[in-house]
Amino acid sequence: MTHKPRVAAIIQARMSSSRLPGKIMLDLAGQPVIWHVLHRLKKARTLTHIVLATTTDSCDDVLADYARTQGVDVVRGSRDNVLSRFVKAVDQFDPEYIVRVTSDCPMLDPHVIDQLVNALIEGQGDYSSWHPDVVTLHGGFEPFTRALFQRIVDEGADNPVAQEHVFGYLSVNPDLGKLVGIPAPAHHVFDQVRLWLDTPADLKLLRTLYARTGAAPGEIDMDDVAALLHGDPDLRAINMHVRQKEAYESSRKVVFRCDGDAVLGLGHVSRMVALATQLRERYATAVHFAIMRGAEGVAMIESARFPYQLAPRGIDEAVWLDTLIRDKGAHAVVFDIRTDLSGDALDLWRARGVLCVLIDDIGPRLDHANLSICPPTPRTLALNGRPGRPDIKAGWEWLIVRGAFSRPVARAANPHPRVLISCGASDPAGFSMVALRALNEVTETIAIDVVAGPAVTDPAPLNRVAQEHRHEVSIHDTPHDMASLMAAADIGIVSFGVTAAEMAAMGLPAIYLCLSEDHSHSASVYEDAKLGVNLGVFGPNDIPRLHQAFESLLNDPARIHAMSETAKQTVDGQGAARIAELIADRIQAGRQNELPDQTQAT
What we know:
By secondary structure, this protein is of the alpha/beta class.
């Protein structure tokens, strides 16, 4: 009888993924991502064992239990030392060949696994892969021999690259094994493609592919996927910007400190989520949010699938944050806060090598930070480029807007002028109601969209005014697609804040209503740049002033067009990307002093 080689697929998996925690239990086509991995591995004819290698952390109990219900063997070990988990699995199941599998590749192809395993056995090498090295649809697994694995253990047991990536140790020691190379299927080769799961953008592509093919869970055909991706570049663009961390590359870990609720508004959280998304997707950064108050802000963070920690009631902010920074091994902390956290706390963290970044803060903490990023205001522009610490970046190019507002958009052609009213998460001053009353005096036919934010507790008064209005009024309760509302509008009326920057990025001329002199001071820069009209500190008795400003703008289409074009040229929507690059570079520069060479990366 012909001996069938013992081939074990060992899946490295844990729930505490640094970029997208719990990702392997997220739904894809009606089943958890890890189910897809197991289902497709079971189709590989060369595999004699499938083993899930997870951690002993309690958060991975659910994963271990789930794997057992699927008839899969489980070994558990160190959270950070993946290699040691593999050693346990290899010792227990004694395979002749190993296929290292990552749990975040739900479209791995069992036929390709068989092809590469058979090539490895027949070619009598140490590992198998495509030759020449090309980018294909296929990822998330590497076949290699037991002998090569033992060499990795013997030579790399204390090396962080081997401990985290196992087979990835060959990236820093390429002469450790002999390759058996086979040609890749030509129609599966791409310049760039990502079919594994690290970010929400990746999940969107995977779900879109299942929706477009109509495949049953786990049964998607890779030829169909290839045809879709070759035929529709927009599909590949969904996650093409997401960057995979190399095996030798140091992990970046950043804590974001912000709050958001009905009183503070959600602007702080909104722009921090935008910045954190850039770091997660473009610089493979592990992000953790630190929140002291605000259910509405927490909901926004959860929606973006970032992990967070809520401060216990009554705890000292500096003490709590210091514990979190240590626990997460943070290389940087980004602050967008209005608390009384002292500069002394920042001095302590800077002294430990933690990069301290302020957003829109030139108060008492300023001289204690490494880096301060500011929107353009008369005060911040005067400080821009000031020598000494911190390094201050102020101007239009540093404005943070969410990703949906960072791309050029064609403005709508409306039969009648369309107005968008957006006055914050809770609209504490009732600006939306005042704006509707001012627009009721407009005789020319207009259409009005009003955004009721997530902290507006009682939209009934707005609805009543809308029903009695002389113009068509639509109330949008916490809309998920603000960018489309802005693209459809001709004029905005906005409570000055982050939304004003988003309107500018979308080329929407706006009238700015200000809650304070500080807001009015900032809005004056927008008016000076000819992006909109600043009405200064605004109140319920200012209906005639708003009506007059609106009529003046409405009756001057050339001015509206000029403002729109100027706004798009002034605010390019890339501020978050620039800041993310700056932070990533500063972290990397700081770590160069810690790491003698790239082979010591963690």
